[in-house]
Amino acid sequence: MTTPMKRLPRRLPGWAKAVSAVVVVLAVLFAGMALSVLPGLKDVFGTETHDRSGPALLESIQDISRYDAASGNFQVVVDLEKDAKYLPDAIRGSRTLYVGAGTVDAYVDLGKVGENDVKVNKERTSATIRLPHAALGEPALDPDRSYAVSKQRGLLDRIGDLFSDNPNSEQAVQKLAVKHIGEAAKESELTQRAEGNTSDMLKGLLRSLGFEKVEVVYEKA
Fold first, then answer.
1. What distance, in Å, lies between the first and last C-alpha atoms of the chain?
2. In whole angstroms, what is the distance from residue 70 CA to residue 192 CA?
3. How far is residue 130's CA from residue 107's CA, in Å, rounded to a whole number?
């Protein structure tokens, strides 16, 4: 009596395995795109956010002797585009339109004022104070007022985001926003306003102490 032969599973050729892998990747990609296009689908999975951060640790304390005399609010629209050679934008490339809002402070460093920079007459009715020129602080980007208007990414960039620890990173456009805000602050009259406010503050303070004549001058540039 002959035993029927069992059929062995057919092995897929190499090209078929490659096509299957591409199909799986595209299926995952389009599933992620569907969730981004239809935000309501995310609620089906009951996503929750938990803050498990540890307590903030104080690393150092620095004494500040500067007088912040003026602050400027700035806004810039950053249009950053990255292209790849020999590939269309639909395959490889990205473009981000980002609105960056931030502030820049202007201050006078009173810690640089020495004994020779303050002159008072014998009757203590007149005083002359020499100060360093006002300087600009580092631009501070406001995350509550900064946002991405639009993001366009090629197919390969979207696939790369699936395997990235920090997908859709906005560090590049944020750095550009900070740079442009700092440049705008230099072109503004922020330091002049800070020097005027500092002079008014010192004159009001010394006059309240009995000085009749108060002069505030700034070092030559």
1. 110
2. 9
3. 15
Question: Which residue, chain included where needed, has tokens 């990255």?
Answer: 82
Q: How confident is the model at residue 57 (pLDDT cuts 50, 70, 90)?
A: confident
- Residue 163 sits at φ, ψ, to 5 deg, of -110, 10
H or E element that contains 127? strand 126-131
- Evaluate the CA torsion angle 173, 177, 180, 186 in order and state its sign: negative
Instruction: Compute how many other C-beta atoms are within 10 angstroms of the C-beta atom of residue 5.
Output: 6
pTM equals: 0.65
d(CA 178, CA 184) in angstroms, rounded, equals 10
Provide the pLDDT for residue 162. 47
Tell which wins on pLDDT, 35 or 175.
175
- Work out the pLDDT band at 8, boundaries 50, 70, 90: very low
Q: Is the dihedral of CA 150, 72, 221, 131 positive or negative?
A: negative
Task: Give residue for tokens 């700092």.
Answer: 182
Question: For residue 185, with 0-12 CB atoms within 10 Å meaning exposed, 13-18 middle and 19 or more buried, which class applies?
Answer: buried
Q: Which residue bears the tokens 């230099």? A: 186
Compute the distance between CA of residue 172 and CA of residue 158 in angstroms, rounded to an integer: 17
Residues 139 and 102: their CA atoms lie apart, in Å, by 7
Distance CA 216, CA 67 (A): 15
- How far, in Å, CA of 203 to CA of 217, rounded? 11
> What 8-state DSSP symbol labels residue 209?
T
